Amino acid sequence: MLLDYTQPLKDKVLPPRKCMVKKGTIDIDVVEITPVVWKGRLMRFEWIRDSHFGNGYYANTEGCCYFRFVDMKTGEYTPAFARNCCFGSAHVEGDTVYVYGVRGSDGGQIITMFRSDDMVNWEQQDVLTFPDSVKVYNNSVCKGRDGYYMAIELGGDKEIVGEPFTSVFAKSDDLIHWTMLDMGTHVYTRERYSACPTIRYCTCDDRYYMIYLESLPCHRWQPYIVRTPDFKTFELGHKNPIMFSDDDDKIVQNPEKFTPEQLEYINGAINCNNSDVDLCEFEGKTVILYSWGNQFGKEFLAEAEYDGPMEEFLRSFFAD
Prior knowledge:
Helix content: under 10%
Radius of gyration: 19 Å
Number of strands: 20
Shape: globular
Low-confidence stretches: none
Largest sheet: 5 strands, antiparallel
Order of helices and strands: HEEEEEEEEEEHEEEEEEEHEEEH
Number of helices: 4
Mean pLDDT: 93
Distance between the termini: 21 Å
């Protein structure tokens, strides 16, 4: 349920606050990503798809989709793992990294966990199974007040999903054993398209914040933010969307890593989408990764930054 927010819009004042700064394109055709801090290093989890175009540095040579991590400082990447899995996300707890992905190459019914202390050797275990009438896509995990929570994007059966896409939620005490929350009451939202969720918990106000994708008129998709104390009632941010597709997305961070043809491909691409937003805090700043493109397969990975801690960034879209 989305709480009414018209009265706060009338009554409250949103003071001037810092904004994120777009830093530009990192790669071609890498979209479902998670930045994490592991053993003091800023790492980027990536799902490399079958049709990966790449720029020669990140190209898919495995013959199938897979997962990996990239050191965002050195550019070095880990060995491929989780072959034939898709739509993954990552979470770090201590020195252990947990990855959750969907079996298959284009959505499926089983979420599998991969766990490692070195990003080379991986244990795996199936943790959630859904009925054949739905398809599972993106997911996101955070640590909350009383355990861990996962947001899961579903499509498929309208009796379960409503208007696809829709987020449902699961809870765990140990990041291994997961239990679904009641999908009849713990859901966002069956009323309209709401895709690719990313959830984080703010200790300062004891609420969960979720960034997700809204479908707007005239073939546009932009990221919005809501917050909730219980995954049943949601408050829409007063400052939405949190970013909007523009020419700053096409700034290329390291043009020397791309061929002239790839630079021309980036510059000439239609851009009507900022999606798949994910984020982490590193050295006092908020690192934000997202996709831009045309929502028809021409997609690019880009980075943004907020000069402040992640909780401050998330709360900056609300009027308190």
